[in-house]
Amino acid sequence: MQRPDAMVQAPTPKLPVLYAKALLPKGRGGGAVPGGGLVRTGVAADERRLLRYAQVCGFAAGGRLPVTYPHIVAFPMAMALMTARDFPFPMLGLVHVGNRIEQLRPIAADERLRYEVWINEPYAHPKGAAFEVAAQCTTAGGETVWREVSTYLSRGGRGGRAKGPEPAAAPERDDTWSSEQWEIPGNIGRSYAAVSGDRNPIHLSPLTAKLFGFPKAIAHGMWTMARCLAELDDRLPESYAVDVSFKAPVLLPARVGFSAGKAGGGLGFRLESQSGREHLWGSVGEPAA
Description:
Structural class: alpha+beta
Number of helices: 6
Number of domains: 2
CATH topology of the largest domain: Thiol Ester Dehydrase, Chain A
Radius of gyration: 18 Å
Distance between the termini: 12 Å
CATH class of the largest domain: Alpha Beta
């Protein structure tokens, strides 16, 4: 994570305004991203929002933040950076292809944290250009407790550096893995949008999704990741890293298969359709030093 030196203090961005800016036309996209990043200090979780988030994603209520919760706090800051006039890629059509979160220790629900968000330089991808939105949380004493890298693809965009990181390999499944079926309701996109603030039209209804080329509304990738981790919560250590690759979207409503088990010295998990189409795979291991 290449944290820039210039970090600008920013109030909570207003997401409706940012979504309006996302509709403004841009070219195909390419080139360097603006330097610098955004920071918010003294941020504590809203108790009611936290409870609702846990309910929507399947986490048990408790005195700790779900590992994916800081993402929804950082998300408006990321949106502010990606909708800036000098950001080189159009927001519409970006594909969230991967996510890595490192929880360095459990975070108490009432802790006040410093959130920092920035964007790393884009790189060439077989389908266009990819870039990483990085975020981290630190305490008032400077302890880093949480880090995230969200990877986005701009189809047809032009990358900067010639080569990006190698994609994560799918965890190998064997007959010791457990599996179960989930019924995902058609309104989960609206429920997650209400608590996360991510109101991308592709998640809200079949009508708005069709405007962007989807036959039905699709589940948020970050909801599918959160739901998988909620299912694994009692098997996870207090400090870990989780890497997820998002594959085919989950068309709503859906019946999917979740499977998980030991893989590569840690845990692996997969989410698949009834026909075996992969929606995501992920692995849990040690955080970076």
